[in-house]
Amino acid sequence: MKTVRVITLGCSKNTVDTEHLLAQLPSSGFVIRPEDWGGSVDWLLLNTCGFIGDAKEESVQAILEAVESKKKGLAEKVLVFGCLSQRYAKELSEEIPEVDAWFGARDLNPVLKALGAEPSGSVSRFRTDHKPYAYLKISEGCDRRCSYCAIPFIRGAHRSVPMENLVAEAETLAASGVKELILIAQDSTFYGLDLYGRRALAELLKRLSDVPGIEWLRIHYSYPADFPMDVLEQMAVNPKVCRYLDIPLQHISDKVLENMHRHVDGAWTRELIGRLRREVPGVALRTTMIVGHPGEGEEEFDDLLDFIREARFERLGAFTYSEEEGTWGACNLEDKVPEEEKSRRLDALMSLQASISLECNRARVGTVERVLVDDLVDGTLVCRSEFESPDVDGEILVSSTDSSLVGKFINVRIIGADEYDLIAEICGV
Fold first, then answer.
1. Nearest to 163 by CA among 198, 113, 126
2. Which end of the chain is more exposed for a tag (fewer CB within 10 A), N or C?
């Protein structure tokens, strides 16, 4: 028997790739070791991230540590795949020759063949955790050309996963105990255009909601331009579709949005947010913003702060602009905002959002909500309602030692709140 261990870095899309790859190994005689395995293995694989600077550094460090493990006899061979090696395979192979082979991010079959495994094309997943939720990658790649983003030339053009494959994958996940599916892609609202000649996200939501055992469907990474409005109908009337939408807007200034190549302006963005609020009452909106992008002066940044005060997003993340080599922005836009000023703007934006988040959370005190119990940690049930997504949003914390509730839905009453988390007590199972 051959042993294999995979270390996965980066986003949830990489986790899905790893689980698809691992699912095809046992039939070829492999024993899969957990990521935190401390013993030796025949094959040590790294699924890397190459999106932004910090992620690249983390991936390079992990590769160097894997090479050290090989030198110590803890791994016979080291293979690297994913976004970083898709982007820098030639440079990395010259700098770190101890790695036995480098692969990209667009096709797992070469990795399987290097291991001596036969690609099966199965939709099965080897779960790397036992959470009651799972990410479902509905498409790969992106046809957008945002000026700051390297994803299109890392992951390639947009490719939707056939609907029947996604339904079959959802069925296998439900059979393993998954209650919630989080739909992810580089651009989830683009789903279906390449396969069916139309945006088919709403139809996919209907199909997935028919899968027995799946109780929640959550949408991430929805692009604002040409947003498919039939998705809102599903959110409003389908009880399994969470009233939650992750919609990265990045900015509100017309000047900045044009420099970003976002294909929308501030007026369109405001109208879209208004329509989301009107057609899906009670919806929780998550967005991300970039500060310090070329073209953002004090006036544009003040406009952004005014928009955040106006829109009152329940969830918001932000990061400072950094030039990504090979992108249109890096080649054509001069990065004029000093790093110290970018940091100041980021702090100001997140301070404003913290006050909004606190107000939103305090407004929920006294309400009764249905939550999914994700975990039990040190006498506390870690839960989420339909308004919280795992890993990126706050949690609802309930004092209890009842491990039988993990993976189940319960009713709780919110009794306390801070900027991010809520405190609750059980009021029904």
1. 198
2. N
- Give the position of tokens 């070329």: 294
Do the beta carbons of residue 71 and residue 40 sit within 8 Å?
no
Q: Is 265 left (phi over 0), alpha (psi -120 to 50) or beta?
A: beta
Look at phi and psi of residue 168 and say left if phi exceeds 0, alpha if psi is from -120 to 50, else beta. alpha
Largest CA distance in the chain: 64
> Torsion angle of alpha carbons 403, 405, 408, 410, nearest 10°?
-150
Count of other CB atoms within 10 angstroms of residue 223? 21
**Integer Cα distance of 198 and 425 in angstroms:** 45
| CB burial string 195-213: b at 16+ within 10 A, e below | eeeebbbbbbbbebbebee
Q: How far is CA 307 from the centre of its chain?
A: 24
- Distance from C-alpha of 210 to C-alpha of 173, rounded to nearest angstrom: 14
- pLDDT per residue of the chain (429 residues) written in tens, 0 to 9: 899 999 999 889 999 999 999 999 998 899 999 999 989 999 999 999 987 778 889 999 999 999 999 999 999 999 999 999 988 888 999 999 999 999 988 889 999 999 998 887 777 899 999 999 999 999 999 988 899 988 888 888 999 999 999 999 999 999 999 999 999 999 999 999 999 999 999 999 999 999 999 999 999 999 999 899 999 999 999 999 999 999 999 999 999 999 999 999 999 999 999 999 999 999 999 999 999 999 999 999 999 999 999 999 999 999 999 988 888 898 899 888 999 999 999 999 999 999 999 999 999 999 999 999 999 999 999 999 999 999 999 999 999 999 999 999 999 999 999 999 999 999 966
Residues in the chain: 429
- The label of the residue with tokens 């056939």 reads 162
Of 179, 164, 98, 165, the closest CA to residue 134 belongs to 179
